[in-house]
């Protein structure tokens, strides 16, 4: 048994398809299949049922795969510990970001991170919050940049910046000539929202419901850009994080107002496993990002 065999097993558990698992591991399908059969022979147990259509893991296969994930994560930690003592700001760093942060934050921070940490190889992944949290817990990602939520106590976190949300409204709206609006003035209005699964949706709705603002149930957006286009078309109002507004201030068809009493906002944080040995690296990254965003926002 070797670590590569465990990687094949975990890849197959994730893909449930031999060809896709082999492609993920950069080996041929016969190589992956053959190594897994040898692993079964060595362990003396059937790990999976092979059919023409799909791969079904046995109870033993599920249990051994779960342990394989832990072994691979521990092995990665060993490598990270060694790197921390030699070159803490070098090597690979896998970062996950949510869709309402990544496209708007990355253009501002990636050039600075490359300049400050030239030996760091940064790999970026975008997904919704719950997917990223699982990938972080499983060791597939080193850290996340996302909005802080109440159910993240099992992870270590470093606050990066507080981001207000602005009200986006059509250029012809009755409030279009104003620069700010009190949240209470929106009572009775219905706002366009993102679809389920986006943490920004839950945060925005928290502020809206407290102020007596409803949700427009006729439409749910898949992205901030979809919401922005719906507003430009005159289909309603929505809340947009400030960083997503920065490059669109002069959008024809959309106006942005500051919201007061209270100002809807969210805290963007860098999340990591509580006992991660790469904490020195995260601290340095957070310092650079926080400084950049304090100037930008």
UniProtKB/TrEMBL annotation:
Please name the Pfam families in this protein's record: HTH_1, LysR_substrate
List, alphabetically, the PROSITE patterns matched: HTH_LYSR
Q: Which key words tag this protein in UniProt?
A: Activator, DNA-binding, Transcription, Transcription regulation
Q: What InterPro entries does the annotation carry?
A: LysR_HTH_N, LysR_subst-bd, WH-like_DNA-bd_sf, WH_DNA-bd_sf
Q: Where is the HTH lysR-type domain positioned along the sequence?
A: 1-58
Coiled coil located at which positions?
none
UniProt keyword annotation of Lipoprotein present: no
GO molecular function terms listed in the Swiss-Prot or TrEMBL record: DNA binding
Q: Its family?
A: Belongs to the LysR transcriptional regulatory family.
Protein name (database record): DNA-binding transcriptional regulator OxyR
**Native species:** Oceanimonas smirnovii
Kindly list the organism's lineage: Bacteria, Pseudomonadati, Pseudomonadota, Gammaproteobacteria, Aeromonadales
**Record gene name:** oxyR
């Amino acid at each position: 048994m070797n670590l590569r065999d465990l990687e094949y097993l975990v890849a197959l558990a994730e893909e449930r398809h031999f060809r896709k698992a082999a492609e993920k591991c950069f080996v041929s399908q016969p190589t992956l299949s053959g190594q897994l059969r040898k692993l079964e022979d060595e362990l003396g147990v059937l790990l999976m049922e092979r059919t023409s259509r799909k791969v079904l893991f046995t109870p033993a296969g599920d249990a051994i795969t779960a342990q394989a994930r832990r072994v691979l994560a521990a092995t990665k930690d060993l490598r990270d510990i060694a790197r921390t003592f030699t070159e803490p700001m070098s090597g690979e760093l896998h970062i996950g970001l949510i869709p309402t942060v990544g496209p708007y934050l990355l253009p501002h921070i990636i050039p600075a991170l490359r300049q400050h940490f030239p030996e760091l190889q940064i790999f970026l992944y975008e997904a919704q919050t719950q997917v990223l949290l699982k990938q972080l817990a499983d060791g597939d990602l080193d850290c996340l940049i996302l909005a802080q939520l109440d159910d993240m106590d099992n992870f270590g976190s470093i606050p990066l910046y507080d981001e207000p949300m602005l009200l986006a409204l059509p250029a012809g709206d009755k409030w279009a000539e104003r620069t700010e609006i009190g949240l209470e003035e929106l009572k009775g209005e219905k706002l366009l929202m993102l679809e389920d699964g986006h943490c920004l949706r839950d945060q925005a709705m928290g502020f809206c419901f407290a102020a007596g603002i409803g949700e427009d149930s006729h439409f749910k957006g898949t992205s901030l850009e979809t919401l922005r286009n719906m507003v430009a078309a005159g289909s309603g109002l929505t809340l947009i994080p400030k960083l997503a507004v920065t490059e669109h201030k002069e959008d024809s068809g959309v106006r942005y107002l500051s919201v007061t009493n209270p100002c809807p906002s969210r805290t963007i944080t860098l999340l990591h496993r509580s006992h991660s040995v790469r904490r020195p690296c995260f601290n340095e990254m957070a310092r650079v990002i926080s400084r950049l965003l304090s100037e930008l926002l």
